[in-house]
Design goal:
- This protein is 27% helix and 18% strand.
- It is globular, with a radius of gyration of 19 Å.
- β1 and β2 form a beta hairpin.
- By secondary structure, it is of the alpha/beta class.
- The protein contains 9 helices and 14 strands.
- α7 runs antiparallel to α9.
- The strands form 4 sheets. The protein has an 8-stranded mixed β-sheet with strand order 1-2-4-3-7-12-10-11, with helices on both faces.
């Protein structure tokens, strides 16, 4: 089943309130799970998703954590939703999670859970063996970093299930609807999954052994999630602005890129990782003076990607 943007609805809405009317185009819809910014006119075949920028921390979650709010926030993609906030003005919808990834991670399978975190046995359908679970970064994360465990006590599966039902599923329901609506309107969809990354350095090139900062990592699952022209378009703009870009290493794209990217069906997905050092102070979790410059660059990327025609996509 496909949906028009006008038909977007909250999973928990009553039937009579389960649609966005024409009067609501250009408006913002907010639930406890997400904030959806709609363009007045959906003119670009693009959808933007920011699943890790949420910072609404439930009181009970904070009370049950070993960490204070500041340290819990270290796992956020802080301010990424603001970097892409002009998307609706440019003609594309922007979906932002309001819940933090430390609470429940929308860029994971629905049930990637670490059995050691729970006091009861997990159902057989739970994925307990993924690489993300192994490092403590499942749908319900064990850690903020490898050294910082989140919880004082073990959880129950019922707690995890409630979070997934209340926050995770509504986010993915509206994201799927946005993607379907865009494909229905334009014949194809380009989904940009927006993220940030901690400071990353690698060897500058095969000749020099000196480390060099990486500014952006573009992930398209090694070409499986989207047309190469999309990645190349973004890469060219970033490099023309003197930024260092890597493709698929070390971030090839998470669950959203893998799950939604079906280029043979006209749905292309690209994950963008932005180095936090470009726009924020990671220690203070504050915007840097250069924030507006990076936001303006993201506007350029949205326009460029939205200008790619269907017959230019190679899949």
């Amino acid at each position: 089943m496909t949906y028009d943007v006008n038909e977007m609805g909250d999973k928990n809405s009553t039937p009579q309130n389960n649609r966005i009317t024409n009067d609501e185009q250009g408006s913002t819809r907010e639930t406890e799970s997400y904030r959806l910014h709609l363009p007045k006119q959906h003119t670009l075949p693009v959808v933007l998703s920011s699943p890790h920028s949420g910072n609404h921390y439930p009181e009970a979650f904070v009370e049950g954590s070993r960490l204070d709010i500041h340290n819990l926030r270290r796992s956020e993609d802080s301010f990424v939703d603001e970097l892409f906030q002009n998307a609706p003005k440019l003609g594309a919808p922007l979906l932002c999670a309001l819940f933090p990834r430390a609470f429940v991670d929308a860029n994971r399978e629905p049930f990637e859970l670490d059995p050691h975190m729970f006091e009861d046995e997990l159902p057989s359908y739970v994925n307990t063996n993924s690489p993300r679970v192994a490092v403590g970064l499942g749908t319900i994360a064990r850690n903020v970093t490898s050294e910082t465990q989140i919880y004082k006590d073990k959880l129950t599966f019922a707690e995890a299930k409630e979070r997934i039902e209340r926050f995770y599923w509504p986010y993915h329901k509206v994201l799927r609807q946005l993607v379907d609506a865009t494909k229905r309107k334009f014949g194809y969809c380009i989904l940009i999954d927006c993220h940030s990354m901690p400071k990353l350095t690698t060897q500058a090139n095969a000749i020099s052994s000196r480390p060099s900062s990486v500014h952006f990592v573009l992930g398209d699952r090694f070409g499986k999630a989207g047309s190469r022209i999309i990645t190349k378009t973004v890469e060219d703009i970033l490099e023309q602005n003197s930024y260092r870009v890597l493709n698929n290493n070390p971030y090839p794209g998470g669950f959203i890129t893998q799950h939604y990217g079906e280029p043979a069906l006209g749905i292309n997905c690209l994950q963008i990782e932005i180095s936090r050092t470009l726009y924020m102070d990671e220690e203070k979790i504050e915007r840097r003076q250069e924030f507006d410059d990076i936001a303006s660059l993201m506007d350029d990327l949205i326009i460029a990607v939205g200008s790619i025609k269907q017959n230019e996509l190679d899949y």
